[in-house]
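Batch job 17 of 40 flagged for manual review because the log was empty.
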Amino acid sequence: MFTLDDLARTIAERAQAGAPTSYTSGLLAKGPTHCAKKFGEEAVELVIAAAAQDEAAVRAEAADVLYHLLVVLKSRDVQLSEVIAELERRTRQSGLEEKASRRA
């Protein structure tokens, strides 16, 4: 089964390929701000697809969002495992407690 870890590894490999031969490398070469903007565009497209109740478009846009999220993480040198660890930490308390702790 293909996992987000597999995708993160592919992104890391393609980051080394060079912009002319790799879309991923080209995104990363433009820097974190560009990667973040592209992620935002994809997130908006997912919202539109979900609001339209178009399941096929939701699947496609969700895939784009996950890919671009991992590109953003790579652009900022944040490991997927660090994000997973943060999610794990947060699941040790209720969502309401976790959200309240961010305001403190």
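Reviewer: the log was empty due to a logging misconfiguration, but the result itself is present. Residues 55-75 form the longest helix (21 residues). Unflagging and moving on to job 18.
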